[in-house]
Amino acid sequence: AVNAVSLGKNGVVELMFKIIGPFSKKNTSLMKVALDTLAALLKSKTNARRAVDRGYMQVLLTIYVDWHRHDSRHRYMLIRKGVLQCIKSVTNIKLGRKAFIDANGMKILYNTSQECLAVRTLDPLVNSSSLIMRKCFPKNRLPLPTIKSTFHFQLPVIPASGPVAQLYSLPPDVDDVVDESDDNDDGETESEIETENDDDKDEHFKNDDIETDINKLKPRQELGRPMEELKMYEQFFPELSENFQEWDLVSKEPKPFVPEANLSGPIVVPTASEE
């Protein structure tokens, strides 16, 4: 991240956009390396904002459409995927998502993905396009006055500072789908932004609403009927009353074979009046 910021200050983002360009069979290996480098540089929020401010989102979409139209034999799938990775890096910030919508990126990626569905080898392009579209699609409220359920679940523990408590305390008219993700970041310095590794955030995320006490999570095992009613079944289900820890269940000496002599005797049913 530090190197990306340093390179960005020295104009390397603009240089990379001069190297990449529309469809050409020349220097495809250079194009692939340049796109990989650019995607890594644009993971920096500072560089991503710089790219958006210079209108490079429209440039990336135009390049992607050009390669999509001309690569009819799908020989340059990695280059097309590299362009999508650059778009994905830029859309990590709110400003990039807005630029993507303004540049008609949703329609472009949707139409190109539809054309790629018939070719199995282009699945990575469809997957990347789907992730970008899902990330950038504007959030909308459900057509409901409130997202609170009419049925309140009796949660055993609701941490006072957790997201569930915040949800329960929201007034009905509050817009809870506003994109508050990152950024307009006027008060943040570059060092504060870039020292965070966005890829590792999820690994260290801790949800205060998750119960970790095993004793609270264990279900209480209760008999469906009183013990007095179950006494008649003791001979069939000795586990209800016997303490098997006192039994010598593992004997070192083999037991002698006893023929099944009791099979011909009467069968006693506890609820019946006769044998």
TrEMBL record:
Keywords: Carboxypeptidase, Hydrolase, Protease
Compositionally biased residues, Basic and acidic residues: 202-225
Region of interest (Disordered), residue spans: 171-225, 256-275
Acidic residues: compositionally biased ranges: 173-201
Protein name: CBPC1 carboxypeptidase
Domain of life: Eukaryota
UniProt GO molecular function: carboxypeptidase activity
Native species: Grallaria varia
S-adenosyl-L-methionine recorded as keyword: no
